[in-house]
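Incident log, structure service

09:12 report received: a user says their structure output differs between two submissions of the same chain.
09:20 pulled the input from the user's history:
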Amino acid sequence: MAKLAVRSAGSFQAVEGVGEVQPLPRRVRFIAEESTNSFVCRLAETNGLGTRELLSMVGAGTASVPEPQFSEVHLNVAAQGRLAVLAGCSTDVLEHVLPTLRGHPLSDLSGAPPRWDVPNPWEPAEDCLVRVCDLCGLAKQARREAYAVSAADWRVCVRHRRWTDNLREDGVACISLTPVPEVVEAHGERVRFERRLGAGGRVAFADAFHIAAFWWNQGAQVPRTWAARHQQLGLERGSDRRVAALVAYPEVVQLAGLLAARERRRLRGSLSRAQDADWLRGVQSRFSEWGLRGSFPMEPVLQWAARHSGRAGRGQRPSRGRYRRLGTSDPHGETPGAALAAVTCLPWRLGEIAEAPAQQWIVNSRA
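09:34 re-ran on a clean worker, output below:
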């Protein structure tokens, strides 16, 4: 058994491997959050290799290699080291740019020989595979369409004002957000919100998103601005299912802020019944501004509040001040980096109804 020299943090370390590999002659530029399968395909194509041919250099594996838009490829620790050598970088750099490597390594014993595998397509995946903005791909000199690992089945490219998803329609690439600048602004607010609050901010956004999903699933009234945004996009008829999250994005971000404000008080043990009633009236007032009338829009909010009704346990109380980190507590577990559907405490999912009314937007193209 030959030994493989793996460059890690500027040094070499011996790893048992299947033959020896050297850096490939042509490197590819890294794309942030790219899937391992997408990166391997680009690296192989750039060097005139087939994907399976390159994977055979990475380690042992017998699974069929899917196209990167359909599934991911997982590597164990030894195989990650070999891929780093082929790519001409350190394993630390590779783990930084390929989230699957750091989040879902194959569970092998220490010192196991290098191998790769493809996850079972019939098992639900926590993450989604979403195409990278085409202009970002061109900037990285990508010869083929690249795919990124995402917590949702859509992504926002702020630099190029693009909305990307993972639909399999021929000729479908990205949706320009130029006609709806408020969506780009809302994404910036969400990034700052989650950066400031941490895990609690991420959870609040996931819950807010699924409160909005409740309205879509029931085919009831929705904020009047959603239809206006859809019309401003100028998309062809039949594209409703692609823009569900897009048209709702600004309101979802605002709602996440309202949920986080109540959650901070609850976790600090300072949420009285009177304050909770005032908070509910404030939420209903905001819904009225959006054109939502009656008690129906409040139903998912009341269900959310019922799940967030207890006090925080010892060590879970957040720091004082609205600009401090907000942790997670019951009914949420520790799910760092997980998909929105895995983070939320609400039981329904977008599009989960028997028959969809004509006016409903549905997105159910999870990877």
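09:41 both user submissions now match this output. Likely a transient worker issue. Closing.
09:42 reviewer note: Confidence is low (pLDDT under 50) at residues 1-18, 354-367. The radius of gyration is 23 Å.
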